């Protein structure tokens, strides 16, 4: 039992109800809640002064905070976490929300990326937040690789997979590359990687290259190393994250501090910072997880919350994740079943395709 849950268990019924009403009102309106407001909604008839005393006790415990002098209270991050863990009532998925998500998958597109892109847009539309979809790694065997020179400081590596999928990645080639050294590097790699997946390539190819480096000249060897850097760098992870609905985070915010937090969040999303952590968060446990404020390793500077769930392939292996990010004032009870259903939907669809 964590400390917050212990505090909740030790509260009397009145304190628990006052706390729950403050949090629920804040999540609905975003406004501080005063004692007079609570006198109209509390199940027992007590004075505003009595409620003020209860709210002061909750503030002393670190569960509520008063943003302005003589104003009402709002929940702290600790308070939100305690509410989510101990008092949150998760509703059923609304039929219209389910239909909107299902409709995005009616088109029988062979392009998984395009399908997940549409689903991300639908998820942001349904939740009115920004959606995040981490697409699965492409695990088909590689058929062919080719380097294409675009300029003296830009080149393209083209990877063709056995299932017809093609990936193009830009990178900066080593100085002095020639068409012949690019061809030599591609031929060398093709002899090693044909029939292997990208994951298998990462595991085995470094050793192969060290053992067989003398088979190619220095320029081609540098080119091979550059191609490996493209696969092993951050580019692939960043490309796997689809972000949709950023504009939803701007709705009606006129507080300068809130706008600054949202700008920070936008910067994080644009840079796709710490994207490897996104999947790591979900791999620590099955099901929907909620990260509030500074608990959220990806966006801790933005005062935001992340509701995220992994999805699995037919072998019950986690291969990606879907999530919704927004202010800490999310409607968690509604968004949790939406994210859960979306993750199950993606998992079923990818399992059927495989």
UniProtKB/TrEMBL annotation:
SUPFAM superfamilies: GAF domain-like, Winged helix' DNA-binding domain. Keywords: Repressor, Stress response, Transcription, Transcription regulation. One of its GO terms (molecular function) is DNA binding. Coiled coil: none annotated. Transmembrane segments: none annotated. Belongs to the HrcA family. HAMAP family: HrcA. Residues 115-336 form the Heat-inducible transcription repressor HrcA C-terminal domain. It comes from the Bacteria. One of its GO terms (biological process) is negative regulation of DNA-templated transcription. This is Heat-inducible transcription repressor HrcA. Negative regulator of class I heat shock genes (grpE-dnaK-dnaJ and groELS operons). Prevents heat-shock induction of these operons. The keyword Flavoprotein does not apply. The keyword Chaperone does not apply. Pfam families: HrcA.
